[in-house]
Amino acid sequence: MESGSAQDDKVDVVSMKRELAAAVAIPIVFAVLFRTPPIAFNLLVAAVALAALWEFYRIAEKSGHPAAKTVGMLAGALVLQAGAIAFAGEIVIPGSPETYWILHSLGRGAGWGPGAFSFFLLLPTLAALAVLLSGVAPPAALGGAASTVFGVLLIPLPAVSLCYLRGFSPRAVVFLFGVVWICDSCAYYGGKRFGKHKLAPVVSPNKTWEGTLWGFVGATVFGAIAGTWILMPELGPVRGAFAGALVSSAGQLGDLVESMWKRGAGVKDSGVFLPGHGGFYDRIDSLLFAGPVLAAFVVALRPPV
Prior knowledge:
Elements: H1 4-35, H2 38-62, H3 69-86, E1 90-94, E2 100-104, H4 114-121, H5 123-133, H6 138-154, H7 156-168, H8 170-194, E3 198-200, E4 204-208, H9 209-228, H10 236-265, H11 280-301
Antiparallel strand pairs: 1-2, 3-4
């Protein structure tokens, strides 16, 4: 059994790794968001979402649902490629030293070629066929095929909402990050200080109703402030507060849903790529639920074309 000092040292090492990873990752994300064309951020979103999808399939396998990973990853890549291009604005393609092409893609559905669209329509059939041909035991076949299709709907499809938000403005992406981060921080510290009533003891024993309420309030206040000043003045304080409340609630649900998958698989983290932070899916679980909600607000702000 470890002594108290050894346990404290272990916590300090994990905390240091977590802070170091954040210190490296956050500036990179913001540099790509503000200093590069939209397509660069969209491709970053696609890469992270594909890594998260792979982790989800690993979780599904550990839960007894052997997904057809190759089919699912290809479908996810096609969805993300379509979203990355469709909401990339102007894409400059060099031709000769004197010429270049400009692809106007924003809002025109670019990237959905007939082949990609057909593959997506055939996804359920291909997933079932892949499970059949791989020799999966019949009791696990339905779960494997269903997990393959569900993974694409759960991760790549909502991840496209981040590409849409970047197409609207980098500020919208920062608003999304801010709401989720403020909610997480307030929920953590509020729950640690005042938490008494368990929110979902079977799925996530450490979460409390008090922490959830603190996260909700913190995100709502942040939304009102961000909607008043520089981040999303298009919303205004009232709609900003409403957006903060709904977006943060969706984000907390996304976190609980991933905790449910991991609990069923008997794993603590979705992966080990990010020191102190777990896997990619651990980092974007809230964003996958929160992003589409904020995207809906932005759609309502944009006049019809």
